[in-house]
Fold each of these.
Amino acid sequence: MSPRGFVLRGLELSGARPKELAETTAADFDGEHLKLSHRKGRPPKLRSRYVVLDKDGLAFFRSWANGKSPTDQLFAAAQGKPWRRDMWAEEVRSAILLHNKSAQRETRVPTEASAYSFRHARISELLQVYGVDPLTVAAQTGTSLRMIERTYFKFIRSAMLEKLASLKAKPVAE
């Protein structure tokens, strides 16, 4: 996979903000966790978190960190330069167009999707498909519970209804 592949696969596996992933160095991956950092607040303060990765994520990030010095960009663009917003935006647009050329109607990706869409997809997937609790999702993705509730409440609600429905099927312990 070329360095361009990080734009999609790395975002998909980590739930990172595109800029966080673009700025990671080989030292930010310790073989078990991926350290992601971003500036937040007023004045902007650097906030870091360690993302827990599944086996696919570990294999993916190990392959990119392999053979790099700690100060090397994990995903360098041409001539070892870090990725910039305009670069990953163009890569995502190109990937969407390429995918949609051969995709069936139901598997087409909306042309307005962006690199940030992969973050939203990951958060939604963690909440809805895997039933991960909102507090863990917030910690994993570096966002607040308030933002999770405000943006993804529909997934939290449906997961809660499923869990409540499953209670009826279980016998009550005496």
Amino acid sequence: MAGAAAKAGAEVRTFGIGAGDWRVAKFMLTPSGATLELETPAGAASVVSHLAGEVNILNLLAALTAGARARRSICDLVEFIPRLRPVPGRFQSVDAGQPFTVIVDYAHTDDALANLTALARQMTCKPAGGVITLFGCGGRPRPHQAAEDGLAAGKGSDFVVATSDNPRTEEPLAILAEIEPG
């Protein structure tokens, strides 16, 4: 696509982790975000972000690349990264003094659960750490199948705790029975 765009006369800028015009050369994920080593045509910078995961690193790179196209300096662009905060309930770290990481996320589909557990796995310290997932499915109407949620949680976790979340008029154990095969 980049080649076709360039051939058509469009300005092409690339970004990525480890590759691209705008790239993160090194990074470390933490429960509360990431530390990034940026390399760009406009210069290098070390940045702390409160947005967790590789997907947010890519989102930041896209924003930086667009910001540079709008003629913003690298200093102006990276200055605001530490001020960015995650949306409440989306990969939100909870620190109550416990000796382990707790993350809350409103993962409401099997795809969201798969992505969430993959991100948690990226931050897990082996051999001591693991991913424990606690999730629930509500009563009808459910926009997706509970078994698919169970499958996604099971594939991405070392241990899963399933609950019925707001069962409405359904029997909570029936919801759990739908989750369990997954």
